[in-house]
Design goal:
Elements lengths: L2 H16 L1 H12 L7 H15 L9 H25 L15 H12 L9 H4 L2 H31 L9 H26 L9 E5 L5 E5 L3 H10 L20 H25 L3 H27 L3 H5 L17 H14 L14 H12 L10 H21 L4 E2 L2 E2 L2 H25 L3 H4 L6 H16 L14 H30 L16 H33 L7
Helix pairs in contact: 1-10, 1-13, 2-8, 2-10, 3-8, 4-5, 4-7, 4-19, 5-19, 7-8, 7-9, 7-15, 7-19, 8-9, 9-10, 10-11, 10-13, 11-13, 11-14, 11-20, 13-14, 14-18, 14-20, 15-16, 15-20, 16-18, 16-19, 18-19, 18-20
């Protein structure tokens, strides 16, 4: 590790923290239905869209009505995207003359983008037409992100409201989030990206002559627009197969820094939105502190593992001073690559500027760990916040048991119904990840897709199902995923990880909203101080350890222990 490497990291993280308050304040106004500085521009569009929806559909909804509207909306989104992918050969906007996408791959991809996962079992520049990229994938990048943020608003209202069963209106929330947050931010960021060298064109490709005199066809397309929302919406789907390691998606160290900022900014800012909407900004800072502690710890481990180089190569005489550069872009080096890997898996982004499979065992362990902790530090836009609030509910319940008091959080008593629903949500990840991995580890057809045997091969399987269930979308890069087994099972895992988790969380929000908000007393456990931060951090790590430690021990941990012996797989 170097001083310059840490300065790079600290500079980017400082930019993220600097945007927390202004962006968080703006989103609080959006969720509250208040006028924003963008209202003169977006107001007429918003009123027109809501008028077209009809007055009868815009009234306050119960948690069940809100959830059903969300499910119907996403079902239509899935069907629309699936149709585009299957029919792209006969639709316009296909300058390369690509065929329609295979049915199972189309199912996997449509589910992936609707679930905010953006898992890609295909090469974007060789499989997707411009229309599929723009009207299909990019549109879902906006809508899946807006869905997550709208659901976070419901969870916040569950704590902020005092009595009543209404939690807002899904159609209003999605419209306002898209028009007042995601769309304007994406336009500005896309223009910055274009100025920094990222292409934005409808031209299919250009021909270039290499230094050796050979001809090379270089794919082009509307890259900057998709790049902006894939990061701001923590989507992660790249226009190109190499994602943000491709020089047209991420040409310089400046764009790399901006991309890391973009994928962290909204999720961290939502903690401030939470604090403002519940009437106690300290609550938001406490949640942010938990996120920062775990993210920072994983970053230190990942950077130190990659900066130390590969001892097997060092023994062969390779200079370790530049760290482990296998699978990394020399434009970015080990520090920026480690930060990108940790940031993209601490959120549900899944974009990569280096190949995680080429990381050292402990370096690759950190992205896997962050996904399996639930991607709540800070998590995807919206999903990270309501995920960590579920952990906060579990924490106050445990704290209440310790002191013999009825647990409460922000004046709302946490009772049996909330705990049952919270545990149901928490069991989705381990049941899906470990269940599918166990079955795949026994199937010869699934094992044939692995590039490695032994502990590294197990990590490839674990990472794939963790990435799908956690709605991350990044890959360990050693797995051939475009097969009937993986297209089907990973698609199911994405559905369960997104919508199977959302339903009990929305039920929790509805239950909390109906409760009267009480006042703090002398015996109330404070949820804005260091003790609460430490307890939430411990609960997150203990839950992750209890659920997944045996799998970690058989994968990245044992691989790390085997490296000094010279054994590789």
């Amino acid at each position: 590790m170097t001083v310059f490497g840490w300065l790079q990291i600290l500079f980017i993280l400082a930019l993220v923290l600097a945007s927390v308050v202004p962006l968080g304040r703006h989103m609080a106004r959006v969720f509250a239905g208040e006028r924003t500085f963008l209202s003169p521009v977006t107001g007429p569009i918003e009123r027109g869209l809501l008028a077209a929806a009809g007055r009868s559909s815009l009234g306050p909804q119960t948690w069940l009505g809100y959830t059903l509207a969300m499910l119907v909306f996403n079902a239509f989104g899935f069907a629309f995207l699936y149709a585009i992918l299957r029919l792209q050969a006969v639709l316009p906007g296909n300058p390369r003359g690509l065929d329609g996408v295979d049915p199972l791959l189309a199912f996997n991809t449509a589910m992936s983008f609707v679930a905010n996962t953006n898992w890609q079992a295909y090469g974007g520049e060789t499989t997707m037409s411009h229309l599929s990229q723009m009207a299909g994938l990019t549109v879902q990048n906006f809508l899946s992100a807006a869905t997550g943020m709208a659901l976070a608003a419901v969870m916040i209202r569950g704590f902020a409201n005092s009595g009543g069963d209404r939690v807002g209106n899904f159609w209003v929330d999605v419209t306002r989030v898209t028009l007042h947050v995601l769309l304007p931010a994406s336009i500005v960021l896309a223009l910055v990206f274009v100025a920094l060298g990222i292409p934005q064109t409808l031209v299919a490709s250009v021909d270039a002559t290499t230094l050796e005199g050979a001809k090379q066809t270089i794919a082009l397309g509307p890259v900057a627009s998709q790049e902006a929302i894939k990061l701001l919406g923590t989507n992660g789907g790249g226009f190109f197969n190499a994602n943000a390691a491709h020089p047209f998606e991420n040409p310089t160290a400046i764009t790399n820094a901006l991309e890391i900022w973009a994928l962290l900014a909204v999720s961290f800012a939502l903690t401030h939105t939470f604090g403002r909407m519940v009437g106690d900004i300290r609550q938001g800072w406490a949640i942010l502190a938990v996120m920062a502690i775990i993210l920072g710890g994983c970053l230190v481990v990942a950077y130190s593992a990659e900066a130390g180089g590969n001892p097997l190569l060092t023994a062969l005489g390779v200079d370790p001073s530049l760290g482990n550069l296998e699978g990394k872009e020399v434009r970015f080096g080990t520090s920026a690559s480690a930060l990108y890997a940790v940031a993209t898996t601490a959120t549900s982004t899944g974009s990569v500027d280096s190949m995680h499979e080429s990381f050292m065992p402990l370096g690759g362990f950190m992205p896997l760990l962050l996904i399996k902790l639930g991607e709540i530090v800070p998590g995807g836009v919206g999903s990270g916040l309501f995920g960590i609030l579920v952990i906060a509910i579990l924490t106050v319940f445990i704290a209440g048991l310790m002191v013999g008091r009825t647990p409460e959080y922000l004046g709302k008593k946490i009772e049996a119904r909330e705990m049952k629903l919270a545990m149901l949500a928490q069991l989705i990840l381990p049941a899906t990840i470990l269940g599918f991995t166990a079955v795949a580890a026994l199937l010869p057809s699934a094992l044939a897709s692995l590039a490695n045997a032994g502990p590294h091969g197990l990590t490839e399987l674990l990472y794939a199902y963790a990435s799908a269930t956690g709605n991350n979308g990044s890959a360990f890069a050693g797995l051939t995923a475009n097969t009937p087994w993986f297209n089907t099972t990973l698609g199911i895992a994405m559905f369960l990880g997104r919508f199977g988790y959302i339903v009990p969380v929305m039920a929790i929000a509805g239950s909390l909203a109906a409760k009267t908000r009480g006042s703090a007393s002398a015996g109330t456990f404070p949820t804005h101080g260091p003790l609460f931060v430490g307890l939430v951090t411990a609960v997150i790590l203990i839950l992750g350890g209890l659920q997944f430690f045996p799998a970690f021990a058989l994968g990245p941990i044992v691989e790390h222990l085997l490296i000094p012996t010279g054994q590789t797989f």
